[in-house]
Amino acid sequence: MGMTITEKILAAHCGRESVKPGDFIEVKVDLAMGNDVTAPIAIRTLQKEGLDGVWDRGKVALVMSHFIPAKDIASAEQGSITRQFARKHDLPLFFDEGQGGIEHSLLPELGLVVPGDIVIGADSHSCTYGGLGIFSSGVGSTDLAAVLATGEFWMKVPENMKFIYKGAMPAWVMGKDLILYTIGKVGDDGARYKAMEFTGPGVRQLSVEGRLTMCNMAIEAGGKSGIVAADETTADYVQRRSKRAFKIFPSDSDARYSDTLEWDISGLDPVVACPSLPSNTRFVGELKGTAVTYVFLGSCTNARIEDLRLAGRIMKGKKIARGVRMMVIPATVNIYKQALREGLIEIFADAGASVSTATCGPCLGGHMGVLGPDDVCISSSNRNFPGRMGHKDAKVYLANPAVVAATAIAGSISHPADFAPWEDAAGEKAA
Fold first, then answer.
1. Dihedrals phi, psi of 377, to nearest 5 degrees
2. How far apart are CA 408 and CA 376, in angstroms?
3. Number of neighbouring beta carbons within 10 Å of residue 140
4. Contact in structure between 402 and 378 (CB atoms under 8 Å)
5. Are 389 and 296 in contact (CB under 8 A)?
6. DSSP state of 221
7. Which residue of 147, 151, 174, 250 has the lowest C-beta tally within 10 Å?
8. What value, to the nearest 5°, has the Cα angle with vertex 395 and ends 393 and 396?
9. 282 Ramachandran zone, left/alpha/beta (phi>0; psi -120 to 50)
10. Calpha distance 325→375 (Å, rounded)
């Protein structure tokens, strides 16, 4: 019996020729990640157990992302603990505020994770790196502490779900729409503790950034991980960023899956998740005219340069609707600088948006645009639970960056085709 890509990666990291769902294994980690929220707990756990040091300085990434610049004394203390630990152990992969950005965009951007890796992060959206053909998953801070000390962790091999997307990608449909459509079909726990493997011609048409977006939201269906098999597009992306050797693992034709779902996406339209679950989805046309008060273009899901370019092309020369506020937060410092060079920051500022340095910001109700009780927000982020972005009575819709930009201009949920031809907005992608 063959194995899936996930099973092959896990087997290669636990010294076995094969694994199967339900096996308990100990795997060696290629990179472990923590941020300013989760790393301090892991650091205190190490100290409590009398442990000092990390198993491999070059394989530990600490990224200041959630509450930077510090919004209050408590967040400043969190940052201080993380900085002191990084300084004490001279960690080369420590990224302070102003030096990195959101970890799930930063690590692929810098070539620190490559196909065939196992990456563990103390953050639920650590499944993002699966977009590069990596097994990656979120863990708790105490689990991270164990990995920091040993470079290993134990897990149960998950069952695999296969999602096949057939047909040509329609205009205005992105990776965000494919994953929202998927979550809408399977539900918020439809892939609980399963490896979600995304494949088919529709996925192969996506950029690496679009694949990262899909895997980012695997956790919103309860998935243990999300993964897209690496291909030529992946190899080109990685080789331009990393000097590390990597290995591409394809799934065998006779690999076992608990479920296989197949859809023709050629007739798909942008998908919007309504309050207050990512699975509560509608097509954008069904929600047209729904008034909003706040627009957020940011997060580890959709704040990469291709997202900002698409939004910028739609918003160029236009103003945000009266009564609507908009926050734009590029995911990393490098994306911010690229957006600055391309004139995108000026487009957003001229339209009336606030633009921030790279940070998670209001995605988790942290800062830089937290919602009040009467706010109705459309967001390019990944989670719309009650209270996620601020007050529990605020309502949050999730959408792709083109829908977000169009809604900012209209003041109500809108189809981007109403504001720009696809060929103009998509730029080189439409060529």
1. -115, 145
2. 12
3. 14
4. no
5. yes
6. G
7. 250
8. 140
9. beta
10. 10
Cα distances (Å, whole numbers) of residue 317 to 357, 359, 362, 409, 428: 23, 26, 26, 11, 20
Spatial CA neighbour of 129 closest among 23, 30, 19: 30
Taking only the tens of pLDDT, the chain with its 431 residues reads 899 999 999 999 999 999 999 999 999 999 999 999 999 999 999 999 999 889 999 999 999 999 999 999 999 999 999 999 999 999 999 999 999 999 999 999 999 999 999 999 999 999 999 999 999 999 999 999 999 999 999 999 999 999 999 999 999 999 999 999 999 999 999 999 999 999 999 999 999 999 999 999 999 999 999 999 999 999 999 999 999 999 999 999 999 999 999 999 999 999 999 999 999 999 999 999 999 999 999 999 999 999 999 999 999 999 999 999 999 999 999 999 999 999 999 999 999 999 999 999 999 999 999 999 999 999 999 999 999 999 999 999 999 999 999 999 999 999 999 999 998 888 855 43
CB proximity list for 252: less than 8 A, separation 6 or greater: 2, 3, 4
Q: Looking at 95-231, list the stretches that DSSP marks H as alpha helix, in order from N- to C-terminal side.
A: 103-109, 141-150, 175-186, 201-204, 208-216
Calculate helix-pair angle for 305-315, 208-216, nearest 10 degrees: 100
Cα–Cα nearest to 336, from 161, 137, 97: 97
SS3 70: coil
Give every CB contact of residue 217 below 8 A, 6+ residues apart in sequence.
Answer: 125, 176, 179, 180, 183, 226, 278, 301, 382
Structure-token match 């098999």, residue found: 229
Please classify residue 83 by burial: count the beta carbons closer than 10 Å to its beta carbon, then call 0-12 exposed, 13-18 middle and 19+ buried: middle
What amino acid is encoded at 144 in this protein? Answer: L
CB atoms near residue 116 (< 10 Å): 22
Helix, strand and coil content of the chain, in percent to the nearest 5, comes to 35, 20, 45
